[in-house]
Each structure stands twice: as structure tokens, then as C-alpha cells.
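User: Could you check the structure of this?
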Amino acid sequence: MIMKRVLFYLTTLWYLRPTQILSLIRRRVLPASKPNSRISELRLRPGVKLCGGIPASRVRAGDYSFCFLNQTKEFPDGQIDWTSREMSKLWRYNLHYFDYLLHADRSLDAKRKIIAAWISQNHPGTVDAWEPYTLSLRIVNWIKFFLQNSSYPKENSLHSLYTQALWLEKNIEYHLLANHYFKNGVALFFAGMYFTGSDADRWLAKGREILASEIEEQFLADGGHYERSPMYHAISVTDCLDVLNLATSSCQAEMCSEMHRFKIRINKALEFLEDICLPDGDIPLFNDSALGIAPHPRDILAYGNQITAYHRRLQANGLTIKSKSQTGYYVLRDGADMMVIDCGAVGPDYQPGHAHADTLSFELALNGQRVIVDSGVYDYELGPRRIYARSTCAHNTIRIDGQDQSEVWGVFRVARRAYPLRSSLTSDQPRHATFEGAHDGYSRLPGCLIHKRVIDYLSPGEWTVHDTVEGSGIHTIESYLHIHPSYSLHPGKKSVEIQNPLEQVILTITPALKVQIGIQPGSYFPEFGKELPNSTLVMTYRGELPITLTYRMSKTLPSNS
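Assistant: Sure, the predicted C-alpha cells are below.
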């Protein structure tokens, strides 16, 4: 066990960039870097403003009640416990993010008192409160709030904000990079735009430098975010829109050229978001994705229309396909039915922290509703729910010999990982489309195994899934299908039916005769902190390889079809 863990560490470290390793060593050996600058004068840059944005509204129980991750805590009389040790670390982070400053249903007086309480109780360097990612979100939220309430900012709150920007500048997350690094850049850009002076000019330059490089690296040619999480894609697109909003609304002429590049990238990212959303209008739950964390795609697209003049497109009638080959997402849409398939890398090699072992998984919606679902994510705590949510058996793909296709471990780590070998989505006639993909995640097993999946779609409503495992030897293959909690599984002699709450059959699954059929209880995590029981169909084969296993999914059509 110890040797296995050592190998996990060594394999994980192998993929890191030298700058990450050096930064990790520095952070482990040395305390957080304290800023050297002294605040001699607080001056705000003239003409800085934001125009509109995404409306933020939450149902609240009171001015000092906070609900994050579906867990609520109330602080009577405004006596906020910023450490709240009985809550998860991510919950405490949310308390320090200050997103709730932008909620219209919390009184202005309460917001002022909460800011004052935070300043008095969270001195520089305090755990949770002064971590760079937390700082980055809070800096942006405070500035948004101050710009909306120009009569509010007092010298002590501006002094604190300035100090936070100085601290962030000294503690940029070079050890993590990815969306954390991007958030650091957004915060430094906001702070540099809000204040004026030599420090602010330096923050602005650094923020622009980070954003200019990272928007090119983090947003792929098809518009998708390189961490392959629809949730983080939506968050990062919103950040980009905020940056463009602040720059253009404040009439900073010197930024026009780089903002033009931003606009092109953002519009491609908005198109990606629109294309992958399921018929219910929300994101698929691939990798670390949950509903209710990022703004709703509907609101992001409306914000995009406001800032970049992005226009939503009408969905075509009949069968349409979308290939996002750089990100590895493939979409089959036929009216109110849709399948979205994941055959992308687990993320950037140097930061796959939000990856799940889910290559060649899919989600399927029928008549506008999710029926076969990704299991989602419950939390970011090391425990059974986190382990399960990242595992292969939590996704609609195959597991071999009880092994995950990518070695996900810890909370955010990945050792050996599955790489896509090929993927495509084609349509050779109006009613037919074919997806093909393969990965090498099981090549480490005896027999050097390769998983290839072909999905044939025939309109209206028939999907045939062919799973070929190439290689040699005797192995156990388990193919999983996770059913939305609103539906139930009912096995028959040769097939399994999915029924809706009215006990009507909506989908029939007919597997190959070579497999054993089992139904297991499962868990569905559509939101952080929300666990719903559901049913999982498991089709198991044990025998010689190579083998091709097939199952057909047939939608129940109206009698007049």
C-alpha cells in the first residue's frame, strides 16, 4: 500500500511543470510572502465602471444567514464565525468569497457590517481568508459592490482591499495554474483598474499579462475550456465577460486590441457552452461539474449578448451533430432528444485536478429531460462520495477488472491517466450518425487493453452502443448506465425498461446475450451537498479478449409516429 502511494506521488509529479514544482517547494518550506509596499495614498482611477452583469438573486432566511453547497448556517446578531470548523473547507471558502454582496435580497446595512466584521476578524495571512483563490474572488466581488455603491467605500475598506491586492500579487498560484491562475489574473486586473498609482499600474500589467497568455492556452480552438469541466468553463467565460465589461465600460483605449482578441475567444466559448447544454438548458455534469455553482447558461448567454453582441442560435429541426474535437465533446441532437459524449483528455497534463475517470461516458436526454446521467460531484472532501464520484463506475462507460481507467486519487490528483486515441462524429444521411472513440487507459493492465466505443444513432430514438476491448487474456468488463432519480429500472427476460413516474416505458435497453444484467443502488449528485438515490444498470462480462459487447437503447415513440 505504501509503495502504491509512492508510485502515485511520483507519477503525479512527473506531469507537473518545473515552475509548479518550484512553487510547491517554496510554499511548503516558506510562509506566504508578505507585501513590501506601504500604502501611502489611496486613489481611485477615474471613469471606472461596470455596465450591467449577471443578476444575482438567492432566497435568504435573513441578513446573516448563508447557504452554500446546500448547507445553511445562520449567525444571530451578525456574529459571524469566519472559521466555522463544523463546515467543510469549501463552505468556508464561499463565506470568504463574498458573492452574496451582489444579492439584491440582502440589506445594504448588513453587507456593510459583514465587510467591517471580516476586516476586523481576518488579519493578513489568516487561514482560508487569505488564500490566493479566496482573495481573487473576494477582490472582484468587493470591487463590483463598491462600483454599484459608490457612496459606500470607506477608507478602512479600501485600505483592506488594497492590502489584499498587494498580498495576492506576492502569492500568485504558480503551483496550481489553470483556473486558479486565471482567477488571480482577473483579480489583479480588477484591482489595477479600480485603483491608480504605481502599485495599481503593476497589478494591471500583471493581470493583463496573465489574461493574455491564459485565454490563449485555457480556451481551446473549439471554444471549450481545457480542464474539460462544463462548470469551470461557465465560470471562466463569466470571468472573461467581466473583464471585457470593465475594460470597455471604462473606455480604456489602450486595451482595445487585446480586448478584440478577448471578444473573439469569448464568443467561441459562448458558442461551445450553448452547444453542449442539454435540452433542460443546463450543463452536462462531466468531470467536476455541478448545477447551481456557475451562473445559469441562460444568464451567461444573455450577458454575452450584452457585452459582445453574441446571439443565440435557433436549434434546427431533425438530427444535428456538433463535434468539439479539441475539448473532446460530441453532441447528437434530435428535437428534444440529445446525447453528449465525453472523449477528451482528462485535462491539461500539469493540472488534471478536476478530472474524473469518465472517458467515453455520455449523458442522454429524452423529450427534454435527463434520463441517463453523469453522477456529478458532491464535495471536495476526501471521503467515500468524492472517491465514488471520480471513479469509472460512477459514469456511463466500462470498467475493466475493477480498475479505474485513470488513476484518480486523493481529492484532486491523477497518476496514470487515459488518453484518447481517436474520436469522431459523422453523419452520412439525414437520419443516421455515428460516433467513434477509443482510449488507452487500460493499456497498463495485462494484455495491453484498448477500449473502443462506437455509438450508432438512427432517428428517431435508437442508439446502439458497441464496446470493443482489444487485447488478450481473461478479464471482467462492467458496463454502467446511471438512471436519473425520476425514473426506475425494470428488468425483463431479454431487456431492461426505464419507466417514468407514471409507470410508462420511455426507453428499452437490450444488451448482448453474453452479459449478466444487474441493478444496483447508486447516488446522483446534481449539486454540491445534494445526494439523491438512483438506480444503476450494470452489464457484466467475464471471458477471453478481444470482445465486442453491444447494447441497444430504443425510445418509446408516440403511437401515431
